[in-house]
């Protein structure tokens, strides 16, 4: 069990270091030109000055829509897990103990 715990702590620390590095890199590049480059369309779609803001807005709207679909799928999966937990504990009488070791 100790090996699993140390593996999780090393995974957590490496993920934390990656996130901190990403945030620091984002802070260094946090200029108006760098942020506008994230939503500016690429070469085939930026030829018309009239349609460039429309394409950029549709891209941002598409990202928001897809992330809301992903959040909805996560909620549906959580609801399904809660339903399985309810069936196992209340209907079939199984006892599920979720105890974490305290170090």
Task: Tell me briefly what this model is.
With 103 residues, this protein is mainly alpha-helical. It has helices spanning 2-28, 32-39, 52-91.
Based on the model shown, name its key terms.
103 residues; mainly alpha; 3 helices
| Overall geometric form | flat
| Helical content (DSSP H or I, runs of 4+) | over 70%
Poorly predicted ranges (pLDDT <50, ≥5 residues)? none
Q: Strand percentage, roughly?
A: under 5%
Number of H- or I-type helical stretches: 3
Report the end-to-end length measured between terminal Cα atoms: 11 Å
Query: How does the helix and strand content classify structurally?
Result: mainly alpha
Main sheet characteristics: none
Mean of pLDDT:
83
Q: How big is the Rg?
A: 23 Å
Total count of strands: 0
Total domains: 2
- Taken in chain order, the helices and strands follow as HHH
């Amino acid at each position: 069990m100790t090996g699993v715990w140390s593996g999780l702590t090393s995974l957590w620390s490496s993920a934390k270091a990656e996130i901190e590095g990403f945030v620091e890199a984002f802070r260094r590049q946090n200029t108006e030109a760098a942020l506008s480059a994230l939503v500016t369309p690429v070469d085939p779609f930026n030829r018309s000055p009239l349609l460039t803001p429309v394409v950029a807005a549709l891209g941002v709207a598409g990202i928001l829509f897809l992330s809301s679909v992903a959040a909805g799928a996560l909620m549906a999966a959580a609801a399904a897990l809660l339903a399985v937990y309810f069936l196992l504990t209340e209907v079939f009488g199984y006892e599920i103990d979720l105890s974490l070791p305290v170090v």
